[in-house]
Structures are given as C-alpha cells and as structure tokens.
Amino acid sequence: TTVTLENIAISSQLFCALLRKTRVCVGENFSIFANTADGDCIIENSILRDNPPSIYMSRFEEDGENETNTGLALENIKRIPQNSIGCDFRKIVFTDTVLTNILPKLKFHENHAMESLTVVATKNEHGAGILAQKQKIRIGRI
Q: How many domains does the chain contain in total?
C-alpha cells in the first residue's frame, strides 16, 4: 500500500506512524502540524498558512521503532524531496530516532520563527542521512 500525501496537512504523530508502517509518497502542498488535545489529525492545508506559528512543540521519538519499521521509515525519508514538508513548529525535539533524517525535508514558513531545535542522536543511523549530505540545513530564523 502506498499513501500519497498531497494538498493536505496531517499531525506529526500520524505522519510518523505512516512513515514507519506504510510506503509514503509526498507530493505538493503537504504540511505537518503539532498534535493537539482536540484530536484533529487531518486538516485543510491552507489553515496552517493563515495562522501564526504553532504554540506546540513537536516531538519525534524512538517510541515504537524496531528493525523492520526503521528500515521502512528510512526508505520513505530518502524518497521525500528536500524542503517539501511545510511545518510551523516553534519547537522541535528529535530524540534517538531515525526520524531525525526528516529534518532537511522540512520547509519552515518564511514569516514564522522557530524558538528551539533539539537533536539527540546516540546511534549513527539517527543522523546518518543528514551527515551524508554534507550540506547545511536551512531552518529559517531561530
């Protein structure tokens, strides 16, 4: 099964689950947003552009990673074009997860400032995709 994500915004939690459990294809006009208490995990993409940056922090963690889904997540991440996933997080935390490799794929909205970016990587695979590129990561304003 392949899930194509285009002209939609989904929660970062749903996005992580999809990356780990199914083949993902990222198209145009796709964004992720922080999980909120109201439970919405899919919204119209234009809502993100019309609002100020999220007050929420997005956490990407090792939780639930195993050898099988780690490989699938890395394959999916490799296929995603650079700067193709819109997001508006003020704070992002990557903790010991291969999902750290998604960082160069994120496109931060120009008018929104990020307050903090935290990356903890105790295994090479957690950041190997980023380090192999030998390029700077543009995260906009901090």
A: 1
Instruction: Note down the domain range covering 87.
Output: 2-133
Residues 6+ apart with CB under 8 A from 107: 83, 84, 85, 86, 87
Q: Are 50 and 84 in contact (CB under 8 A)?
A: no
Mean of pLDDT values over 66-88: 87
Q: Please state the pTM of the whole predicted model.
A: 0.79
| Residue 74 belongs to some domain of the structure | yes
* Residue 27: per-residue pLDDT: 94
For 111, the token pair is 């008018």
What tokens were used for 35? 């999980």
CB-CB contact of 138 with 105 (8 Å) = no
Dist CA 120 CA 100 (whole Å): 9
Question: Would you tell me how many other CB atoms lie within 10 Å of the CB of residue 20?
Answer: 21
